[in-house]
Structures are given as structure tokens and as C-alpha cells.
Amino acid sequence: MEYILYEQKGSIATITINREKALNALNSQVLDELNATLDNVNLDEVRCLILTGAGEKSFVAGADIGEMSTLTKAEGEAFGKKGNDVFRKLETFPIPVIAAVNGFALGGGCEIAMSCDIRICSENAMFGQPEVGLGITPGFGGTQRLARLVGAGMAKQLIYTARNIKAPEAYRIGLVNDVIAATVDEAGNVTASAKDNLIAAAEKMATTIAQNAPIAVRNCKKAINEGLQVDMDKAIVIEEKLFGDCFETEDQKAGMGNFLEKDKEKKLKVVPFQNK
Ligand code: CAA
Q1: What phi and psi, each to the nearest 5 degrees, are found at residue 76?
Q2: In CA terms, which of 32, 91, 113, 224 is 20 to 30 Å from 149?
């Protein structure tokens, strides 16, 4: 892989988009490598993924403008589909994905972050959908996921104006769950960068998720994602089925058994994922 780094630490894995010279912009090769990386995640071991960009400056500065600049209508549509297919794979990935947004998350960068389950960002992060300034629409799901995340009115304002927003505003409108600052000592020296603290925060969150019952966590993701696509009557049936699916599993027996035996120390750490 030229543009993707993959590192597994126990039950947590980190995917880093590693094209720093182009601020991690997404060209076809990056998308293909990301797709292949997702296909190769060891789902018997990994319980939570972190997605980030190489360097301190940029998460992903969008789809590759150089590559897009000469596309025909048909090629443009196919490029949109390529991005959408990979992002949809990320969105429906069986385990949770945390986007650790370090710097620019513009165009396709904002869109890939929105395909993740949870977004946290560094204090220097900047979000936006600048596409209309380039003569195109957001093409990797931005018109759909931004509206679903922050509401149609705010999404339309951001997309029509192509205005970029900084981390505090992204937090205020609910685009990110948390903003992580650098650590500065009394003399004003940075002792830990915002990126380092961001990755530490993402790993801490991922560890907490990974300690919970893996089948239950997967089923929660499925229930929330699939339930949001249908009306409430259908949504609660989706929940009922996924709730029922947890019973008779080792996770459920251990989780409830430990509680009833008052053995909270055991928790669920010993329960391996059952690949059923
Ligand atoms: N595509 C291709 N190359 C990009 C890029 C992109 N989206 N973003 C940055 N780069 C490249 C630059 O061309 C530059 O390369 P060179 O050193 O070879 O010239 C390098 O990354 C560094 O960028 P800058 O010199 O521009 O860095 P800066 O600090 O001055 O500005 C920036 C940073 C504000 C993010 C600026 O690079 C920028 O505006 N980038 C484009 C952002 C954008 O419009 N993204 C949306 C793309 S469209 C899209 O994503 C469509 C879709 O929905 C699928």
C-alpha cells in the first residue's frame, strides 16, 4: 500500500490516510487502497477502528482536484460511485469507526468523516463542503449525510455558501462530538500536540467500546443505521430482532451472569467475538 497505513493494537486498529504532500487528498488509488484495507480487517480480533490522516495539518483535503479536473460527465459519475461505494462500506462496516479529524476535513474529507460512526477533532480542524466553488456538487455523500447529521437548513447553508467552519462551530452544530486541544505547560510550551492528544482520545474511546460485548455493539450499530432509514414502526421491529439476536450468546450469558454473580471485575473482557 502506498497511501494507507494500517496498524492493529490488540482489539483496536487504526487506518491512516497517508498522502501528506497532497494533504491526504483522495485520488482513485487512495480509494482503492482504503477499500482493500477494509476488506482485510481481521473482524475476529478488531472491535473498533480509528480513521485519521497523516500529519498534523490535514485529515483529508477532499477528493483529488487534479484527477477530477478532466473528467467527462460519465467519468465524474463513476468517480462519485467509487467514493460512495467505499464510504458506504465504512458506514456499514460491522464494527464502530471513529474519525479522528486532525486539521482539514474539506469536501471528500468532511464526507469520509461523516461516513464514520463518531467524529472527534483537533482544535485546528476545519470542516466544509467547498464543492460549489469548484463548479461541482459534493459527490461522496455530502448532500445526504450532512443534512442528516446537522439538519437540512444548516447543511444547505454550508453547502450553498461553500463556507468552511472551524472546530468550535462544528462542535456547536453537532458535526463533531468533541474537540481536543494541545497540552500547553505554564510557560506556554506545547507538551503534547493536538494530534497526539486527539489520537490518545480516540484510542481511549475505542478501548472503552472494545471492552463491551462485541455482538451487542455490532447490533447497536446496525439498529441505529438501519432504523434511521425507515419509519418508527419498522425501526422498532429492526431493534427487536437485533435485541433478540443477542440472547443465547456467550456475551449475554457472561454479561448478565457476571452481574448476577456480582462479579463486575470479570466484565466482558474474556469474551471473544463469536463469528456467527
Ligand atoms: N486535491 C488535490 N491536491 C490537493 C488538494 C485536493 N483536494 N488539496 C490540497 N492539495 C495539494 C495542493 O495542490 C498542494 O500541492 P503542491 O504542493 O503540489 O502544490 C498541497 O496539497 C498543499 O496544499 P496547499 O499548498 O494548497 O496548502 P495550503 O495550506 O495553502 O491550503 C487548503 C490548504 C486550504 C486545504 C487548500 O489546499 C485547499 O483549498 N484544498 C482544496 C480543498 C477542496 O476544495 N476540497 C474539496 C475537493 S472537491 C471534492 O472533495 C468533491 C467531492 O465531494 C467528492
Answers
A1: -60, -45
A2: 32
Please choose from 3, 17, 23, 114 the residue to mutate so as to test ligand 1's pocket, defined by most ligand atoms within 8 A of CB.
Answer: 23
Cα separation, 48 vs 251, whole angstroms: 17
The pTM (predicted TM-score) of the whole model is 0.96
Dump pLDDT digits (tens) for 134-170: 999 999 999 999 999 999 999 999 999 999 999 999 9
According to DSSP, residue 58 is labeled E
Which residues of 73-219 form beta strands (DSSP E)? 97-101, 104-106, 118-122, 126-128, 165-166, 178-180, 183-184, 190-192
What is the residue-averaged pLDDT of the chain? 95
The answer to whether the CB of 53 falls within 8 A of the CB of 103 is: yes
Which residue ranges form the domains of the chain, and what is each CATH number? Answer: 4-210 (3.90.226.10), 214-269 (1.10.12.10)
Q: Which residues are catalytic?
A: 111, 131
What are residue 135's phi and psi, to 5 degrees?
85, 15
Is the dihedral angle over the CA atoms 138, 116, 99, 29 positive or is it negative?
Answer: negative
Instruction: Give the integer Cα–Cα distance in Å for 114 and 265.
Output: 35
The residues with which 83 forms a beta bridge, in sequence order, are none
Q: How far is the CA of 23 from the centre of ligand 1 (A)?
A: 7
Which residues, judged by CB distance below 6 Å to any ligand atom, belong to the binding site of ligand 1?
Answer: 22-23, 25, 61-66, 83, 104, 106-108, 111, 130-131, 134, 138-140, 142
